[in-house]
Write a structure and sequence with these properties.
With 300 residues, this protein is an alpha/beta fold. The protein has 9 helices and 12 strands. It has one domain: Alpha/Beta hydrolase fold, catalytic domain (Rossmann fold, 3-Layer(aba) Sandwich), CATH 3.40.50.1820.
């Protein structure tokens, strides 16, 4: 597992260097410089009504530009009318468990504040999604902040230490995508590949969904289960209906690895596994996000 992970890291690092052609903006946080890429939807002007904002956090050892390429959020944002911000982790990584000195939550908060001053952003419709380590960071942010109307971790789980420390904040709608063949962040949880001196322990994908369902005060401990039409048994949907209109949904993809569903891999298949084309995670996430507003969960 570890060798496979480190090989993947090396390849992703080389790919990340090739993905830095997009214009990068800078922001000073805690005396240091942090960077991000912002996509402004076509047709936006100062006279436009306030629009939603999606924060999209990249995987470990990749970049904001790669996150844009692997998810196609920009094309959808142009069609639907919302901003997409791609923050860059310091040294291409996220402090997803709070164990390092890098204050990523402060960075994300400062980024939202800056964008809110420079553009007309609907403060009730700020969302966060992330891939792999970015998805872990998104879940830590949801534990620490009440600024997000909904979150969407993909090929990710929540680290056990974060789940144990997660506060009793406002319920938050959560949608999760995870491949059963994921060899980087295992679907069944446990220890995942990482630095030899810092192994990471994760909840299983169903365990992460159950964690958020419990935190959201779900009405029933038993979720609804169904297979998506025209997918056979390849895509299972687990859905918790929760009080206050903050549901939790998990899409389990039987033939998928450590990849973003419905879009091209950015790493070789023999390392990250296959990609499910049965569902387009970007479109499904947006359909989920657009339903929710902060403090008005369930209202469109």
């Amino acid at each position: 597992m570890l060798c496979r992970f480190l090989t993947c890291v090396a390849l992703m690092f080389s790919i990340s260097l090739a993905g830095c052609s997009s214009r990068t903006s800078r922001i000073e946080v805690d005396g240091g410089t942090r960077t991000y890429v912002l996509h402004v939807p076509k047709g936006y002007s100062a006279n436009t009504a306030a629009l939603p904002l999606v924060l999209a956090l990249h995987p470990f050892l990749t970049t904001a530009s790669i996150m844009a390429d692997m998810t196609d959020w920009n094309d959808l944002a142009d069609r639907e009318g919302f901003f997409v911000a791609y923050p860059n982790g310091r040294w291409w990584r996220w402090n997803s468990d709070g164990s390092s000195s890098t204050d990523d939550p402060k960075f994300i908060d400062a980024l939202i504040n800056r964008l809110s001053k420079e553009y007309k952003i609907d403060q009730s419709r700020i969302y966060a999604t992330g891939a792999s380590a970015g998805g872990m960071m998104v879940q830590r942010l949801a534990c620490l902040s009440d600024r997000f109307a909904a979150i969407a971790p993909v090929m990710s789980s929540i680290q056990s230490s974060v789940a144990e420390q997660c506060g009793d904040g406002s319920p938050i709608p959560v949608i999760i995508f995870h491949g059963l063949q994921d060899g980087i962040v295992p679907y069944d949880g446990g220890l995942a590949g990482g630095p030899p001196d810092a192994p990471m322990h994760f909840l299983s994908a169903p365990g992460a969904a159950a964690f958020w369902a419990e935190r959201n005060g779900c009405e029933s401990a038993e979720p609804e289960l169904e297979y998506l039409p025209n997918t056979g048994s390849r895509v299972e949907r687990m859905h918790f209906s929760c009080r206050g209109g903050a549901p939790v949904t998990l899409y389990s993809l039987s033939e998928a690895g450590h990849t973003w569903p419905g879009h091209n891999n950015i790493a070789p298949q023999f390392i990250v596994g296959g990609t499910s084309m049965d569902i387009d995670a970007t479109k499904v996430i947006w359909e989920f996000f657009r339903t929710f507003r902060f403090s008005m969960h369930g209202d469109s």
